[in-house]
Amino acid sequence: MQVQLSLQNKLQLLCDILDEHQSGSCVSLNEHAQLERLAASLLAHENLSGQDIQNVLTNIQQYGKDGTAASDLSMHIDNHQEQFSHWINTVQQNL
């Protein structure tokens, strides 16, 4: 049985994953792939039409995609540290 997540559940999940990345927790390639899929799913959601959230979701999707191909995940995450807070704040505004 597959459970369908609500828009709010997806946004909260996205915040939780980004928070893990920001805190420097051990992050896997699978989590980057999950971020990419989750951002793509949210981009397709008609109730999220604001330009700020669309831009942030596009950036998160690209971050996830780049992370799955990164040779050094720690460096990839470190290179995005200053973006995580902005991304999380923007997503939380849409909860």
What does this entry look like structurally?
Helix content is 73%, strand content 0%. The chain has helices spanning 7-22, 29-43, 51-69, 73-78, 81-93. Helix 2 packs antiparallel against helix 3 (51-69) and helix 3 packs across helix 5. The longest helix is centred in the middle third of the chain and has 19 residues, at 51-69. The radius of gyration is 13 Å and the shape is globular.
Number of strands: 0
Secondary structure: helix percent: over 70%
Pattern of helices and strands: HHHHH
Question: How is the biggest beta sheet arranged?
Answer: none
- Large-scale geometry: globular
Q: What is the rounded distance between the termini?
A: 26 Å
Radius of gyration, CA atoms, in whole angstroms: 13 Å
Structural class estimated from helices and strands: mainly alpha
Per DSSP, the total helix count is 5
Low-pLDDT runs: none
| Strand-residue proportion | under 5%
Mean pLDDT over all positions: 93
